[in-house]
């Protein structure tokens, strides 16, 4: 993933959707950084894409949260041909395990120190 600022995506006006992708990667990562960068490029082109948060733990757990205005935007991302291909390669090579949780957000708030 690209370098993200050390700040979360700001609170958004609900309702909107989140896709929470949590993974542990394998030792084989050839091609992963390039593919991750390409996926980030592509998702930004989806009408209704609102942003992304990403974090990794020292132990190797990775969490990416994608924010989408509506279910149609999320469906468009899910059906993107390059994204489908990357998901297949991820299962074959890059991921030891992963989970995907999709939810409709009904409440959102934030805080930022002045």
Automatic annotation (TrEMBL):
Keywords: Monooxygenase, Oxidoreductase. InterPro entries: ABM_dom (IPR007138), Dimeric_a/b-barrel (IPR011008), Jasmonate_Hydroxylase-like (IPR052936). Pfam families: ABM. Residues 15-88 form the ABM domain. GO terms for molecular function: monooxygenase activity. This is Heme-degrading monooxygenase HmoA. It comes from Amycolatopsis tolypomycina.
